[in-house]
Structure formats: C-alpha cells, structure tokens
UniProtKB/TrEMBL annotation:
Keywords: Dioxygenase, Oxidoreductase. It comes from Salipaludibacillus neizhouensis. The lineage of its organism: Bacteria, Bacillati, Bacillota, Bacilli, Bacillales. Residues 6-132, 157-280 form the VOC domain. InterPro entries: Extradiol_RC_dioxygenase, Glyas_Bleomycin-R_OHBP_Dase, Glyas_Fos-R_dOase_dom, VOC_core. GO terms for molecular function: dioxygenase activity. It comes from the Bacteria. Pfam families: Glyoxalase. This is Ring-cleaving dioxygenase.
Length: 320
C-alpha cells in the first residue's frame, strides 16, 4: 500500500449549527463548502468548513447534536486540532482578531519549533493556529477570496492533531506498525511527554502528536469534543487495500463505506480513538458548482428520495 498522505479531515461535535456556522465562517473565515446531513442520522446537520473548494487536508467538519451536554475534557480523546496559517507574522493579525471577537486564546507561543496560538471556540472546542513559516511538508490549500478574513491571512488547512491517551505505547504501535507513520522527537506539555509522528511528505499537514496523560479521567464527549480524525488515502483502489490490511490484523472496523464525497474505512485503536481512512476524491463539486458550494442543502443521491422528509426535520441556517 502507498503511504497515507496526511490529515484528511477532523470531525467534531456542536450543539448549535447556527452559532457554529457564524464562528467558523465569520470569525475564522473558513468557507462552508458543504451543508449536508449526518449520513448515519439524517435528522441533524453535517457542516464542512475548509479552503476555497474543500481540498483534502483542509476540512474541519461538525455534526450537530442539539442539546448535547458540555464536553468533559480528559484522556482517550482527540484533545486539540490545529489550523495552519502561512507565517509567523500572520499570527499577529489573528491575535488582534481574537481580541476583537473576544476569542479565548493563549497568545503566541512556541511549540515543537513553531509559533502557535492555542484558542477555543464558543463551545470550548480546543483549537490551535500554527504557523507554516518553516513548513516543508504537505502543501496547504487556498483560502476563499470572498472570506471576511483577507486571503493572505486565511487558514490554509489542518495542522497537527493531538491525541491524549493513557497508554501511549499502544497508540504509537498502531501509528507506526499498522498505518506506517514515522516517529520523530518528543516535547513537553504541562509536564507530560508528547511524541510526534508524521506520514507522507510530513510537515504540519501530516502530523499526529501523541500526548501521554497521567492521572486524568476519561473524556466524556459532548459539545466541544472531537469525534474522529481521518487520514488521506490516494484512491479507492488504495482504500480497498487498507480494508484488507486492517481486517487481516483483527481490528473491529466498518469495512468499505460510501460517503459520496469520499470513500472511507473506520476503526478504533486500543486507546479508543476513532480513526478514519478517507480517499482524496471525488470531492465536493459533484453535486454543486464551485461558485455555489455550501449554499444549499446537499444530499448524496441515495438520500434524494428522502429530501422532503429530511428538510422538514432541519432548522434552516441563516447564511450571509
């Protein structure tokens, strides 16, 4: 099998799709490239925010679960999602913007040799802006020119994803022996060790940081938590090879799953983190033209005969 190419997308939970839409499009300036439904529960939204056309490696997605309880942070979790920006200087722009919009943040810090800002959204989703100043790995995307954030300051994709786990050696083994990641150096975070892994071309768009937690209760997911992280597979042909590989190792898994915008495989590693392998294509323009991405409710063809019923259950979203 070919190496995984990097981070494909991260999917998180929100209790309020309208407020979520406001934060990620109006404050963070990402483009809503697909407004659809959770294919496992069509009564709720699945929103995709990304670069100008939802290129693989740029998608941060949210399942809406109305009335979801607040996330109780802890171990056995995807505990931070990074978003890439072009340079160290760009972080100064974001500090000013976060002050303007009262976004809770850490200020500019240095972590693993890069400038970062840790911050949270309105539901305490744990996020980070990371500078690509020194990045030489996976290329970023192109921010949407109609964003309220100037294009040269915009978010260009997903950065490293941090996993917090009580038995780090088990996650390390899955990343290296099963998924083919390479292990790099470590750094300290609040007195704990974090080990860095990368795949494909490496760099900010292809890293997983495994945080070895101590004496921490298990996370109780709710609004503000992350559901899963997906890694990039080049093609459907390659994905089928991965399905065979994962099944041969005895992992409980979903098998091949048709998501229309991409094809997927899901499985859990021993610390309970849900991993997805997802193909780079077909992408988001099969049912909407580039200029209209995200403007209307998009449904895969196998749900079209249920459109009237599905739309009746959804609260309309107000978009600018």
């Amino acid at each position: 099998m070919k190496s995984l190419k990097g981070i494909h997308h991260v999917s998180a939970l929100t209790a309020n799709a309208q407020d979520n839409l406001h934060f990620y499009t109006e404050i963070l300036g990402m483009r809503l490239v697909k407004k659809t439904v959770n294919q496992d529960d069509t009564s709720v939204y699945h929103l995709f925010y990304a670069d100008e056309r939802g290129n693989p490696g740029t998608d941060l997605t949210f399942f809406e679960i109305p009335h979801a309880a607040k996330n109780r942070e802890g171990t056995q979790s995807i505990s931070q999602t990074a978003l890439r920006v072009s340079s160290d200087e760009t972080l100064n722009y974001w500090l000013e913007r976060f002050v303007e919009y009262n976004v809770d943040n850490s200020g500019i810090q240095e972590r693993y040799g890069r400038k970062v800002i840790d911050f949270k959204d309105f539901e305490d989703q744990r996020l980070q802006l990371i500078s690509d100043e020194t990045n030489s790995g996976v290329e970023g995307g192109i921010p949407w020119e109609k964003s309220p954030v100037p294009q040269e300051k915009g978010i260009i994709g997903l950065g490293p994803v941090r996993l917090s786990v009580p038995r780090p050696e088990k996650t390390h083994k899955v990343l290296t022996d099963v998924l083919g990641f390479q292990q790099h150096t470590t750094y300290q975070l609040n007195g704990d060790e974090v080990t860095v892994f990368s795949t494909g071309k490496g760099g900010t768009g292809a890293e997983v940081h495994v945080h070895a937690t101590k004496d921490m209760p298990r996370e109780r997911p709710g609004r503000g938590s992350v559901h899963h992280v997906a890694f990039r597979v080049e093609s459907e042909e390659e994905l089928l090879k991965w399905v065979t590989h994962i099944q041969s190792l005895g992992y409980m898994n979903s098998g091949f799953v048709e998501r229309y915008y991409f094809r997927s495989l899901y499985f859990r590693e021993p610390n309970g983190i849900l991993f997805e392998l997802a193909t780079d294509g077909p992408g988001f323009e099969g049912d909407e033209p580039f200029e209209k991405l995200g403007e209307n409710l998009a449904l895969p063809p196998y749900f079209e005969d249920q459109r009237e019923e599905i739309e009746a259950k959804l609260k309309p979203l107000e978009t600018k």
